[in-house]
Input
Amino acid sequence: DAKTTQPPSMDCAEGRAANLPCNHSTISGNEYVYWYRQIHSQGPQYIIHGLKNNETNEMASLIITEDRKSSTLILPHATLRDTAVYYCIATPLWNAGNMLTFGGGTRLMVKP
Amino acid sequence: DTGVSQDPRHKITKRGQNVTFRCDPISEHNRLYWYRQTLGQGPEFLTYFQNEAQLEKSRLLSDRFSAERPKGSFSTLEIQRTEQGDSAMYLCASSEGRNEQFFGPGTRLTVL
Output
């Protein structure tokens, strides 16, 4: 798996967009970018994944740069319930069904 | 509730005792994973099953740890001769093939 680098913490105002960056400069062509989050005292929760095209679902949008060396997870209208640790993982699709390698993640604090 | 369930949610034991945790995955999911998470860190992969076959084990899974999934449904994780360093949150996840993993709430183990 490619190494990912995320800021350890970020703040966001409630109702504003939260933009969480992830650097994965050594990502290889077959590695997807996955995002999970972990709300306090809960297990991680899948958010979204992508290979090279931008992706959007009901939870978030994933923007991957053209060179695929970095990506941004966007929560368009953050709420207090989005306060969590967000993990960015780069891994081949075949391995995502085997094991996930979590780094330290970004602790997002959404403030009223 | 049709999510991943884990039992017990909390376990306190004395050093040297054996403990066993249970995980019930989402019913149609053929893959089941175990992770361990210590305070302030991301989850670390321990092992995973496809149906009843244990396909991969991390080096973190010492010989005191054993996991089973006898009928390809629920799974148990046993730790023998617990040590204080085993204190952690033990997370179970399941997936349908290589799709996203769904995590349970975890079992918090405290070894005194």
Observations:
- The interface with chain B takes residues 34, 41-46, 49, 85, 87, 93-94, 96-105 of chain A (CB under 8 Å).
- Helices of chain A lie at 93-96.
